[in-house]
Design a protein that fits this description.
By secondary structure, this protein is of the alpha/beta class. Helix content is about 40%, strand content about 25%. The termini are far apart.
């Protein structure tokens, strides 16, 4: 019966905010408390649970495995409480900040153009957007939604498919006029092939014509941090690169880029997902509103 004296939802709210804001001081400011009071509250929570939730250092807090599980469940519980209050209240307007991470091509071609319309529909929501082609840890980076292309590996996350895109090798007409238009993958050894520098990039460009297959390992004089940089370099005539079709299509239509070795294109398709922590019924209203808006407005041509 002693547990009735413990404000467990209040403790949980403080703990989740500590993780989301990255420290005791930031959470203390959010709740109008002192950092020492927040630290003691988390310590009491750990003592009551009989396990360490965070490893403390002078620079940052790091969730333990138990802390990570507790945080994920805690977010869902608090979202359920918010939903229960929303259902019992006439004030059902999404509000608060949504932290979004997206790969750079998707960000430039889809996400950023949609921001004004989303904020006009939901004026009490604010967005914090980070564009980066690296895969981030949503919990560690305190991110609500991430947009990812390709296979998903993090089993902790829930995914909502936004679309699919095929991949295409392209070069500018000026580059092809100078270096020649290849008709066989083996000829790519004589070309400047542009690729990204991050470690999760695919090891090569698969090619297939009938039963004949090749895997071209790109070799060139320039690597870039993201797919949109490669896109611009290709338009500028520096070399060939492999892009999502939605990146290249407008330039292909305008004659600024030309598909290369399309007869050898194996038809690879990349799925594009919005990923987040927690099941759909356990999401804050602000996050659900953002996900629904993306699903409604993102149309990715293949």
């Amino acid at each position: 019966m002693a547990r009735l004296d413990v404000n467990r939802s209040g403790e949980l709210d403080v703990f989740v905010r500590v993780i989301e804001l990255g420290g005791f001081s930031a959470a203390a400011r959010a709740f109008g408390m002192t950092p020492s009071a927040v630290s003691k509250l988390v310590a009491r929570l750990e003592q009551r649970l009989g396990t360490r939730l965070v490893n403390r250092s002078t620079r940052q807090l790091q969730l333990t495995a138990e802390g990570c599980a507790f945080y994920e469940r805690g977010v869902r519980i608090l979202a359920d409480l918010d939903e229960a209050e929303r259902c019992a209240s006439v004030h059902d307007t999404p509000r608060g900040r949504v932290r979004v991470s997206a790969n750079v091509p998707f960000g430039h071609h889809f996400l950023l153009p949609l921001v004004p319309a989303f904020l006009a529909r939901h004026p009490q929501v604010s967005l914090e957007i980070s564009l980066n082609d690296e895969v981030i840890d949503l919990l560690e980076q305190r991110t609500d939604v991430a947009v990812r292309a390709g296979p998903l590996k993090d089993s902790r996350l829930v995914a909502r498919q936004l679309g699919r895109t095929r991949l295409v090798v392209v070069a500018s007409p000026a580059y092809l006029a100078e270096r020649g238009h290849p008709t066989h993958p083996d000829q790519l050894e004589r070309h400047n092939l542009l690729t990204t520098q991050h470690v999760r990039a695919r090891p090569g460009w698969p090619m297939r014509l009938g039963d004949e297959e090749r895997l071209v390992v790109p070799q060139g004089n320039t690597q870039a941090s993201d797919g949109e940089a490669l896109h611009r370099l290709a338009v500028a005539g520096l070399g060939m690169t492999r892009l999502a079709a939605f990146q290249a299509q407008a330039d292909i239509d305008a004659g600024r880029l030309v598909p290369v070795l399309e007869a050898w294109n194996p038809g690879d398709i990349e799925d594009i997902h919005a990923v987040y922590v927690g099941q759909g019924g356990h999401l804050p209203l602000r996050v659900r509103a953002f996900l629904d808006f993306l699903a409604e407005h993102v149309h990715i041509p293949t």
